Amino acid sequence: MTDPSKNEDDGNPKFGRLLIVLFAAVLVCVALTWVMGTWFPNFPSIG
User: 5 or 37: which carries more pLDDT confidence?
Assistant: First the structure.
């Protein structure tokens, strides 16, 4: 049989992994904002 102490969530939240994912999401938002402001300054206006 398998050992229940391995490959099982112990119930503790993984704050390190969550922090890395949130930081990556913020960086993507910042990069997207910078790209839209730099290359598409008149984006909403069509004509």
Answer: 37
End-to-end Cα separation, the chain, in angstroms: 68
User: Would the CA dihedral through 40, 41, 45, 47 be positive or negative?
Assistant: negative
Closest CA to 33 of 5, 10, 25, 21: 25
d(CA 17, CA 24): 11
Would you report the helix, strand and coil content of the chain in percent, each value rounded to 5?
55, 0, 45
* Residues 19-34 pLDDT 10s: 999 999 999 999 999 9
